[in-house]
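Hi all, long-time lurker, first post. I run a small reading group and we've been trying to get comfortable going from sequence to structure in the token notation. Rather than ask abstract questions, I figured I'd post a concrete chain and ask someone more experienced to write out its structure so we can walk through it together at our next meeting. Sequence below, copied exactly:
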Amino acid sequence: MNILFLPHPPHLREPWLKDVQEVLGSRHDLTLFDEQAPWERQFAGVDVVVDQGGAHGRRAMADAARTVKLWQILGTGFEKFDLAYWQQKKIPVANTPGQSSAVALGECALMFMLMLARRWHETQANLERGCSYTPIGRELEGARLLLIGFGASAKALAARALAFGLRVSVVDVREVSEAERRKFNLEKVGKPGDVDRLLAESDYVSLHLHLNAETHHILDARRLSLLQPTACLINVARGALVDEAALYQRLSEGRLAGAGLDVFASEPLDPKSPLLKLPNVIATPHISGQTDGTSHRRAECVATNIDRIARGLEPVYRIDV
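-- Answer (accepted) --
Happy to help. Here is the structure in token form:
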């Protein structure tokens, strides 16, 4: 199979490109896309396109992809991808499933919770001042954690939260099975209509949703106002799930205890963003899913689909059907 890889800039390619190359081995021929070379010639005879991150595909590429049997996104999210146009061109599209990054996302969310509970920024300031024994932190044991969305990353966080003794509740559009309730010792299980009530009862709220028209600003000013002043928000999913202006206002006025944020409405985040100046915000630059384990698992998903296409089978993880 002839594979064309659409990469991020050089400083963001690894380990993603290397892992795909290693997992594919010598079974298929992989070529790196050259932005400066003629597109028509590069797409000629290509069987599968691997789009790193799902943000590189353009309509002119779809027009040139006459022989392409699969457009494979190397990532889970596809909100920056013009799926409707690829459907119009009848090019199958697949992503890598949430399970590939679930461990990384769950660990990062728990890290945010621990850092907020121990008031990380204040500890660092006190170290620099030579001030010991303060601040007084909080324990996670017994705290109430609400997971909005109960897919793979939420389950990864729930498993880790269980080990820390948190009381976990979830909201999801689907039915949560009795086996899942028992496995994660879920205290409460609700549907989207229960979000307001459960927000008001929670000490930590963690978002685990895809971004779409229905979930955009799912935590708006009204819903943020339902949170207790002692509560903390965790977001390792998508920035635009939250109204950032309303979040900043509540954090800066002390009406919300803290936030752990890996994603933002506009990325990269402006280094002068007022959010970064708040002592009750822990922020990272969209790295929650960026681990060696995630990269290898995603590469294996990509290789599975390419091998299936080579055997004349339908790809798994399709998002255009």
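A couple of things your group might point at:
The chain has two domains: 2-98+291-310, 102-283.
Residues 102-283 form a domain with the Rossmann fold fold (CATH 3.40.50.720).
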